[in-house]
Write a structure and sequence with these properties.
The structure holds 2 protein chains of 2 kinds. By secondary structure, chain A is of the alpha/beta class. In chain A, 40% of the residues lie in helices and 7% in strands. Chain A folds into 3 domains: 4-95, Fumarate Reductase Iron-sulfur Protein, Chain B, domain 2; 101-247, Rossmann fold (3-Layer(aba) Sandwich); 253-386, Rossmann fold (3-Layer(aba) Sandwich), CATH 3.40.50. In chain A, α15 links the parallel β6 and β7 (368-371). Chain B is an alpha/beta fold. Chain B contains 11 helices and 24 strands. Classes of the chains: A alpha/beta, B alpha/beta.
């Protein structure tokens, strides 16, 4: 069996400087899972440091509950990185074959099909059938790559994001291209689930594509793809999120919003990978504020305190040990109590977890979940999509 | 030189600077005491009670501020700053820039009519009360202020901002003794002194700071989240609520004190312990328990540091009185209806809780005064990595330049008893230096 101390030949405590831990609890207190899961990052760090046989941590299944939102690491007063400790433990567990079956399937699919959803490579562009989407496969050249992402490309609900963005780019005259069926998974979730080797493999394909086609800029649909391009790829070109592009277009008056519109009360749910990890808080709000009829309101837990939807860190493919109300359900309940019509978000995982929470809380008809791109398109083309 | 009386400049008239000035003055040194603000007393003047004895802070301080103003060997200059310092032989030439007060120190009888008459009366947020009370554009920060002369706030006064105030400034109209002069100008004085003591105090950490703040603590937007210094003003009889602990006009039933806000926290740019906040919160918990019978007072801490004389005993007193000490540094705070929710792991129990309460008091840490680096450059001192003035390793009062000394919290966080001792130490060191200059 692989051991924790096998990583780089040092113990977990040495590798992550856990001797400096204050045991203050700010990591656990901020952890979105700590109320409903046995996951306790402070205790985890303490045991890594104190127990001679830190290997016992490998038995702990709750490391799979981590959503990799990084709230813990952002709060640590000694600037330690509990989120990376969780990832390191996952890596060793995977090497020993101790991995949830559903996650294993997603990893195998990523390797085999270039996406974690178990779908064929050839179906990656199925979402684009019948609509105008620039693609290198149809010789559309551009210095700006729109990286669509696996979930917006394959998931029937998240596909709304991809379709909406394609439509916005079309009407706003945005110069871009996509990789079509050449696009492969960015690897963000696989890396955060602990599978470094798979991440290397996927990222190499993307990096080669980016370099070969000499892109000068990447715009990503998903904050997860964007984040890994920024944090893990080491690209030398700027990477942005689509909300930043839309905010710029809105500021320049290039989004032809519809004139008449019903008043809609919208609360924005900050995706962790956009906000907490990349400090992009204002761009999505500026887009929403520009849409006629939108009244933007704030969750008490917004921006730096946004309540993680539990979709990150591979959690889309891991059930987890958490009991009781899911965070996305809390989010939906809070929004209904606030009298909100729509929860807007800007991430395919948040979109799916929130949609699921509407169903599991029986809140259909009380509240709707939209991605910001969909809200923009609803205003441009009329609201037939919103029904 | 040696025939005239020795002289010294003390910059900053908080409790440390006053102590240093009076010690020197009592020893026969001619002291110029320069204060940036409108009145003297510094942070201690804002404090309600002192630990561990729960003495009334202003009752202890006022005799000292009055003495500093009236001592024949002390010349007090307010609204003034040290803007230049050059060595001239064995002494210094100090340049003092004095901003106008717009009210004549000799004529003003502190009747208060100007303040009542001011067009902005009740519309200006009190700086002294940390934004919690409403005042005028002319006034004194608190009733026992020294000097008692009123002063105009140039950042608010209509006359000074726009050159006109209705048909004429109402304050001047109301003043029987003709003390208000809007034409007063900034002036510069050059003084020869034999020694300099810097006692410029500290700034309080701002949890809402855009660069090093902690937005997750909801301080900026939530009126139920206040700092420990704001608590002092609420608790003080001269404060905006006349000493009643009220939040939105209502007495809180559950108060949570949060330690180490902006201290021991590299994410806020301060790795150091601020040394005073544990005792401040214990004291404030006791005040709350005494003022509001039945109140729930919880202190959330990482470590309680009660190291001074009588401090540990005070901590036990607070505990026995009902202060609940729970170990865990909260991670975030958010509003829920009329309540505040503190999300914290009690590290002794090992589980995260969402604690609902009515008032959160952030034990904000001590920071170097803004502008410390500039002042250090003027006075030929250096600042440490933490931003406070560097002192000699073997001489805690000694600055790194000869004849320049450091007193109080500008050299590092300290509480009132330590600041007083530090003021005396700096006075002693300055005196030694002055006597040496005199050939003794």
């Amino acid at each position: 069996m692989p051991k924790l101390s096998d990583i780089e030949g040092v113990t977990l405590a040495e590798r992550f400087e856990l001797a400096a831990c204050l045991q203050c609890g700010r990591c656990t207190g901020g952890c979105p899972m700590s109320i409903r899961s046995p996951l306790n990052s402070r205790k985890f760090l303490y045991e890594s440091l104190i127990r001679e046989d830190g290997e016992a941590l490998l038995e702990r299944e709750e490391v799979w509950d981590c959503t990799s939102c990084r709230t813990c690491s952002s709060r640590c007063p000694r600037e330690l990185d509990p989120a990376m400790v969780m990832r390191a433990v996952r890596t060793v567990k995977i090497e020993g074959g101790r991995i949830p079956k559903t996650l294993m399937d997603a990893m195998e699919s990523s390797l085999k099909h270039g996406n974690p959803w178990g779908r064929s490579r050839m179906k990656r562009t199925a979402w684009a059938e019948g609509i105008t989407v620039n693609s290198i496969e149809e010789d559309a050249e551009s210095e700006r790559l729109w990286f669509v992402g696996c979930t917006p490309a394959y998931d029937p609900r998240a596909m709304g994001m991809a379709k909406a963005l394609a439509r916005i780019f079309e009407v706003a005259g945005v110069d871009y291209t996509t990789l079509g069926s050449e696009e492969v998974c960015c690897g963000s979730e696989m890396l955060r689930a602990g599978e470094e080797g798979l991440f290397e493999e996927l990222s190499e394909v993307n990096k080669e594509n980016f370099a070969e086609l000499e892109f000068a800029e990447v715009v990503a649909t998903s904050p997860h793809c964007m984040n890994t391009f920024i944090a893990d790829y080491g690209l030398d070109i700027p990477v942005t999120h689509y909300t930043q592009l839309l905010a710029a277009l809105a500021a320049e008056g290039k989004l032809p919003f519809g004139g008449e519109s019903e008043e809609v009360k919208v609360a924005f749910h900050d995706p962790c990978y956009l906000g907490k990890q990349n400090s992009i808080y204002d761009a999505p709000r500026n887009v929403l504020k520009a849409v006629p009829g939108v009244e933007l309101v704030e969750f008490a837990r917004s921006r730096e305190r946004s309540l993680c939807c539990e979709g990150g860190g591979g959690r889309m493919w891991i059930e987890g040990m958490g009991e009781g109300e899911r965070n996305a359900q809390i989010r939906v309940r809070d929004a209904i109590e606030m009298g909100v019509d729509v929860i807007a978000t800007a991430c395919p995982f948040c979109l799916l977890t929130l949609e699921d929470a509407v169903k599991t809380t029986g809140s259909e008809g009380k509240i709707r979940i939209f991605d910001i791109a969909e809200i923009v398109v609803n205003s441009i083309d009329g609201s037939e999509r919103s029904e | 030189m040696s025939t005239s009386a020795p002289s010294a400049l003390v910059v900053g008239a908080g409790v440390a600077g006053i102590q240093a000035a009076l010690d020197l003055a009592d020893a026969g040194v001619k002291v110029v005491l320069v204060e940036r603000g409108d009145s003297i007393g510094g942070r201690m003047a804002q404090t309600d009670k002192t630990f561990p004895t729960l003495d009334c802070s202003s009752c202890t301080l006022t005799p000292r501020t009055v003495e500093a103003e009236s001592h024949p060997n002390v010349r007090l200059i307010t609204r003034a700053e040290l803007t230049g310092l050059t060595r001239a032989g064995s002494s210094f030439e100090a340049e003092i820039t004095i901003r106008p007060r717009y009210v004549d120190l000799e004529r003003c009888v502190s009747c208060g009519r100007c303040s009542e008459a001011c067009r902005l009366a009740g519309k200006v947020l009190s700086e002294f009360d940390l934004g919690m009370g409403n005042v005028s554009a002319i006034g004194v920060p608190f009733p026992q202020a020294v000097p008692s002369t009123y002063a105009v706030a140039p950042e608010h006064c209509l006359m000074l901002r726009f050159g006109k105030c209705g048909k004429g400034p109402k304050c001047a109209e109301a003043c029987d003794v003709d003390a208000i002069d809007f034409d007063e100008e900034e002036r510069v004085e050059r003084l020869e002194v034999g020694a300099v003591i810097l006692a410029t105090g500290y700034d309080l950490y701002d949890p809402a700071d855009s660069a090093i703040g902690r937005p997750e603590l909801d301080f900026r937007d939530n009126p139920r989240v206040i700092t420990n210094l704001q608590f002092e003003r609420l608790s003080s009889a001269s404060g905006p609520t006349q000493g009643k602990l009220l939040v939105g006009g209502v007495e809180p039933k559950r108060i949570v004190f949060i330690q180490c806000v902006g201290s021991r926290d590299r994410t806020t740019g301060a790795a150091y312990c601020s040394r005073v906040c544990c005792m401040v919160s214990l004291k404030q918990a006791v005040l709350a328990l005494e003022k509001l019978p039945g109140v729930e007072a919880t202190i959330l801490y990482m470590d309680i540091r009660a190291f001074g004389k009588g401090y540990e005993e005070f901590m036990e007193r607070a505990q026995r009185l009902g202060a609940k000490l729970r170990r865990g540094a909260p991670s975030e705070i958010f509003a829920m209806g009329d309540e505040v929710v503190v999300r914290v792991e009690d590290t002794l129990l090992g589980g995260t809780e969402e604690m609902a309460c009515d008032l959160v008091v952030l034990a904000a840490g001590l920071r170097p005064r803004s502008g410390s680096e500039g002042l250090a450059a003027i006075a030929n001192l250096t600042v440490e990595e933490d931003g406070f003035f560097a002192t000699h390793k073997r001489d805690p009062a000694g600055g790194l330049g000869e004849g320049v000394f450091v007193a109080g919290a500008c050299g590092g966080p300290m509480d009132i008893p330590d600041a007083v001792a530090s003021g005396s130490a700096a006075a002693g060191a300055a005196l030694e230096s002055l006597l040496g200059v005199g050939g003794g």
